[in-house]
Amino acid sequence: MMSDILTRLSAVPSRPHGATETTDETYDRQLRDLVTYLKQPGLVPSTTDPNEYLQVLSPSTHSLSFLYLLRFHIQQAQKRTKRDIPDVLQPGGILWKWAVRFLRSFDPIQIRYSIHEWRQLVEVVASAALTTSKSFLALKVTRDALEQLGLCGIFTSTHLLLVRLALLSSSYTYALPITNQLLYHFPTDADHVHHGYLSCSEHAPTTTLVTNASGISSKLTHRDHLQYFLYSAMIYMALKKWDEACHCLNAVITSPTSNAVSKIMVEAYKKWILVNLLGYGKVISCSIVVSLHDVGAWLIDLNAQIPPTSKMIAPHVMRVYQSVARPYISVAEAFEKGELQKMITEIDLGQTMWQADKNTGLVSQLFEAYDKFVIVKLGKTFSALTMADVLQRTSSTAQSPLQIEEFVASLVMSGALRANLSHTPHENGTTMLRLSLGSRSDTCRQEHIRAELIRARTALNAIAQGVTQTDQTLELSRENLQFLAKSQKWSGNSDKISSSGEAGGGGDIDEDIMGDGQ
Amino acid sequence: MDLLQSDIAEAAYPPYATQTAAAAGGMDMEISNGNTTASTGPFVRVDDAPKFELDSYIANYTGRTRFNRLYLIGTCSTYLSVEALKAAVAEAKSGKDLSRYERAVQALAEVAPGEAEAVFDRQWADRLQKVVKSETDRLEHELRGYKNNLIKESIRMGNEDLGHHYHQTGELGSAFKAYSRMRDFCTTTSHIASMLFKVISVSIERADWLSVQSNVHRLRGLQSKPDDEQAKNAPKISAALGLAQLNSGSYLEAATSFLATEPTLGDSYNEVLSSNDVAVYGGLCALASMDRNELQRRVLDNSSFRNFLELEPHIRRAISFFCNSKFRPCLEILEAYRADYLLDIHLQRHVQTLYTRIRTKSIQQYLVPFNRVSLQSMAKIFVLETPANQSNSTDLNSAFVQELIGLIQDGTLDSRIDLEKHVLVSNQGDKRIELQEATLGSLQNYVNEAHLRLLRANVVSAGLEVRPLADDRRAKMEERGGKRSTIGNLFSRVPGMKP
Q1: Of the partner residues B461, B463, B487, the one whose CB lies closest to the CB of residue A503
Q2: pLDDT in tens, B19-64
Q3: A170·B498 Cβ contact <8 A
Q4: What is the residue range of B411's domain?
Q5: Considering only CB atoms, which chain A residues are within 8 Å of B453?
Q6: How does it assemble (chain B) (predicted)?
Q7: Chain B residues close to A467, C-beta within 8 Å
Q8: CB proximity B461 to A under 8 Å
Q9: How far apart are CA A264 and CA A22, in angstroms?
Q10: Exposed, middle or buried, A226 (CB in 10 Å: 0-12/13-18/19+)?
């Protein structure tokens, strides 16, 4: 009996990379048959010991069978104990071990055939770790599972889960491998995805998975992707990676809207102002945001003149931002103009607001950032000056030349300022700050540039791939557009787009999640 | 009587008064806007004694500009106020403009109430009022008669007489209209030219520089037959154009126009400006807007402009000092004449701007050959105060160092200050590194922007844009009715998250 089942279960091993013995078509049929077989009820007796089968099967070669068996055992345990999270599934439990082992080593190609079950497993494992307040374990498992699946640019509910776990467990760096990926694709309804790929093909673009029918993600609403980017930004903020944080926040605040502004966007805008100040010393006036046209409007009216500098933020959204985030804007103005006293007053005035918005931490960093940017700016005017002069021109936190010297030294050490300090030989002599323009050694620079170029190349490749995929999904080839324009079917097409949006509404997350999420 | 009331109302905001007020000590950089806005700021106060003799200065001018200049000097200079205002009262009394007389008497009464001229001559004023009124009526009546007879030449002359009369009595708006009406009745080009000159003269007095410019261009386009007449008009045209450009703040163009003015101008345009003025305006504009080579070539080596410069030798000296990189004498000369120029009706608003530009240019020029230059040696040239104050002129807080800091911060000077060795070091950045960094920056920007754009397209295509709450609620109700995963829900309320 058991051996029969095992033969069936291990009938379709995963194909090694580049193998050609079985064609895509056969493999596809075999996998579909296997899934149908696995889905029939009462495959294995409910009394079986979990270890019995799981020990024999390898999670990496027989991923589908392993997944279904594991799932079966979890369901059994849930039924037995009448709890969502039975003890055996909790960290240290027997099923936990198998689940973790599976999620680290499964075969992503096979899993494409039952991605819905995979997602449920990830979620149940994560919640098992959470119920025992081990959010860090949940984070690690989720991250490993997502990395193993290797989705390319697709946003799923699992991503949101991941960043939330990262914030919960305060282990920010663990989420970086996932948040550093560029996300740009969302699961859509399958009906207008035409492709000639089989799911098992190695060359199939991952976008073929991206249908709501595949169950790769729970139903998404606008809140999900907004939250994901906001949480990612918060992870970067915690790590003081202002560039990345700013980019994530940009993604939130420029999100397309139809007659409404999400509270998440407003929160993001507030943080965006602070992050700009902390990262750049000034609010960059949406310059990277400008010059993007509204794709939605463009789809609807092809003939409309697109102003090249129209902003991505709709004017009515901008008005909402500006009215709600007034205290932040005042602080930013004072910061930019270098009016320290005014900034301190504004910050004092806004105390309740910072607390309510949970931005006190960011606001308190403003003082140091202010000093930092003043000193960096001094470097543009002076090539050398004494600490007393520096103190006179900065602010706030430091009271004596000695304190400011410590601060400057920390800036120099962290690489934010290229300068060197020199003590005069006299006793109680002053310290001279020498600001150099570009003193990094040549080889060091070249290495740096090289690394940057490689990074930029990866990013560009990802973007290019995304553009191709999006063009396909949106049916935006030049010929198609010309054809459509000719046959005057634009009105019909735009109806279809807006109606597909209706289906994406709704979700499990409650309205006030933002308050908790700080 | 209506006429008179409107007249006085207009006089309350005389064009020059508003202009100088708007300038507020020559600090106003918004020169082009200063013409039309009527604000009531403080006048420029000039306490230093100017170098010129009032009598000989004013003798250079004829016509209405005499009063305007006298009045300006009287109200701005504390040193010359009584003398100038007395002359202004006398000047006004010899004319037919009642409002001017009132202004001059009022101003004099404020400065020197004891003077005999400070008392308002009511009898004379009443008489003048009556004379003006009857004259206006007479001229308008005559013009109506000419119009009935449909004789072009008579209508033109009637309008001209009326315009002249209005101009004399200070109704500049009506004068402008009357002169403009002449256009249709001009039969020869010389008529048109004389009409345009009259319009320009009124426009200059009204400080309507746009109109001056457009009429100058009309004059230029005129094909006048007799060459000598063209030759006679050309210098006046250039001077008027230069004046308009000076007042609209285009100093380089103004310099070009003044430099192109023929020396035959002589005293033919004294109702607007004298040859001395051309030298000063042209010289200062050129000094502020041209580099050393250009100055040498276009000003000092310009044989026709040399005639003007001979009238104002200190301007020529200043320019040649600048060309020879002797900045201190150059700046000293200019500083010595600052009071004079602040009392000039056209130059007043621009003195500060012109001087600042010249000074900035001097500093820039001075720094060209240096890699590093000590602040001490710079202060020796550019701090114009007495040597006693020079000892601390290289401190961080001295005015000179602050000026340098300002210039560095607004990007005029590409150098940095070394306060240890007290030198100014010119920046020699590595262009290669700058370029590399700029390229990487733009790459990153591109990736970011493309990502945002891509994301946006996909959000819209997936129907995930932010929509009004009502839609959501409905969708949610539907969702609640349907299947609901228990596990996915566990994470919806997790308290105590830390950013």
Answers
A1: B463
A2: 333 333 333 333 333 333 333 334 677 777 788 888 888 888 888 8
A3: yes
A4: 370-426
A5: 292, 295, 312
A6: Component of the COP9 signalosome (CSN) complex.
A7: 450, 454
A8: yes
A9: 49
A10: buried
Residue B182 · residue B163 · CB < 8 Å:
yes
Burial (Cβ within 10 Å: 0-12, 13-18, ≥19) of residue A268: buried
3-state secondary structure (DSSP) of residue A257: strand
Contact B489 A508 (CB under 8 A): yes
Q: Which residues of B touch A99 (CB under 8 A)?
A: none
State yes or no: ipTM above 0.90: no
Q: From A338, A368, A335, select the one nearest A350 (Cα to Cα).
A: A335
Q: With CB atoms and an 8 Å threshold, state whether A164 touches B491.
A: yes
Three-class SS state of A23? coil
**CA geometry: angle at B293 spanning B291 and B295, to 5°?**
65
Per residue in B211-270, pLDDT tens?
Answer: 999 988 888 877 665 666 777 788 888 889 999 999 988 999 999 999 988 888 877 888
- CB–CB contact A127 B456 (8 Å): no
CB pairs under 8 A between A and B: 247
The answer to whether the CB of A126 falls within 8 A of the CB of A146 is: no
Of B101, B120, B139, which one is at a domain's C-terminal end? B120
Nearest-CA distance from A6 to chain B in Å? 30
CB B241 within 8 A of CB B216: yes
**Single pTM value for the model:** 0.70
Distance from CA of A147 to the nearest CA of B (A): 20
Q: Is the peptide bond before A46 cis (omega within 30 degrees of 0)?
A: no
pLDDT interval class at B111 (50, 70, 90): confident
> Could you tell me if residue B395 is inside a domain?
yes
Q: Is B474 on the interface with A (CB under 8 A)?
A: yes
CB B350 within 8 A of CB B342: no
Last residue in a domain, options B102, B120, B138: B120
| Mean pLDDT across A329-357 | 88
Tokens of B189: 């080009």
pLDDT at A74: 85
Q: What residues pair up with A185 in beta bridges, in sequence order?
A: A154
Residue of A nearest to B474 (CA): A506
Structure tokens at B393: 């002129």
Chain B residues near residue A123 by CB distance under 8 angstroms: 485, 487-488, 490
Interface with A, mutate which of B375, B433, B455 (most A CBs under 10 A): B455
**B488 contacts A508? CB cut-off 8 A:** yes
Q: Measured in whole angstroms, how far is the alpha carbon of residue A171 from the centre of its chain?
A: 15
Residue B436: what residue type? Q
The chain A residue lying nearest B477, using CA atoms, is: A506
In degrees rounded to 5, what are phi and psi of residue A359? -110, 10
Show Cβ contacts of residue A197 under 8 Å, excluding neighbours closer than 6 positions. Answer: A203, A204, A205, A208
Helix/strand/coil for B140:
helix
Question: Quick check: B324 and B336 in contact, CB under 8 A?
Answer: no
Task: Please give, rounded to a whole number of angstroms, the shortest distance from the CA of A344 to a CA of chain B.
Answer: 24
Cross-chain CB nearest to B417 (options A186, A381, A505): A381
Q: Cα(first)–Cα(last) distance of chain B, in Å?
A: 79
Residues of chain B positioned with their CB less than 8 A from the CB of A183:
455
- Mean pLDDT on A410-421: 80
- Phi-psi label, residue B375: left if phi above 0, alpha if psi -120 to 50, beta otherwise: alpha
Q: For residue B38, tell me if it sits in a domain.
A: yes
Q: Would you say residue B223 lies in a domain? A: no
* pLDDT at residue A216 is higher than 50: yes
User: Residue B25: inside a domain, yes or no?
Assistant: yes
**For chain B, what is the domain count?**
2
Residue A169 has pLDDT above 70, yes or no: yes
